[in-house]
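check these tokens.
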Amino acid sequence: MFDPSWLWAAFTIVAAAAQTVRNATQRELTARLGTVGATHVRFLFGFPFAFIFLAGVMIAVGQGLPRPPAVFWPWVVLGALTQIAATALMLAAMNDRSFVVVYAYIKTEPVQAALFGLIFLGDVVTPGMAAAILIATAGVLTMALKPGTSMDVRATLLGLAAGAMFALSAVGFRGAILSLGLPSYVMSATFTLVVGLVMQSALLSLYLWLRNPEVLVSIVRAWRPSLFAGFMGALASQFWFLAFALATAASVRTLALVEVLFAQAISRFVFKQATTRREAVGVVLIVVGVLLLLWAG
């Protein structure tokens, strides 16, 4: 019989796969729309799909829209704003010559999520979970920081800042979901997703309208690839939020490191690129960390 306590892990893996596809699409759009424009695509073209998800959930559970308590709003604002900042930092890093270094430090997110989750939500990190987080993170760093990789202060700070923003975003959205106190965690997750995406879409649309309205026009013209990126972003977020409703931000973001394995698999089997010994060691560490996390959780 299926154990529902494992649902968060299944949700996280689906979210990581969808996010891998979205990131690839979003990266292509950066050249056409700029960093802010490509960042906006995931929100602007994502929230219509989130509304569809919400309508489906309302029909399925036979429940109207919830009335969020006052404490819900600071949490969702924290999640929305830090996710905008994190996404912009990540996309800017993709054009940086030190992207490999930046990416490695972005993936310190699980460690930072564990810290922020403990401080803000009281999410307990057991010794087994802490070991899993550190081992999996070490695996990512081993794969990314190869001998001869240039290290500089800017890349380090940019990566750590992006990781911190992603971690705060995860904690903020988890806090918003939990604050609703609804009997259906699916409704809590989906409602929070819709509110967050509407906020993000409105804020970035206003910013671009005031600072660079031509980008808004370019986004509309690029609606075909933007629509797909928005759908994949909304789908990924839907499953991230479902996972956040059931598990700590640190657990979810550690398991999310499987996206590194997805990327490695694509490199190996699709592009026929050989796996180096260092990459193999990194993969093993990530797998060990993930298995330990699932066992400890």
